[in-house]
Amino acid sequence: MSPSEFWRLTPNEFYYISKHHSNHLSDSYQTSWEQTRLLVYYIFCSYPKKNKNPNFNRFKTDFMPLPWDKDFKVKDTEFFDPEKVVSLDDWKDRLSKLSGATTKVNPEDIAKMNI
Question: How far apart are CA 70 and CA 113, in angstroms?
Answer without folding.
Answer: 56
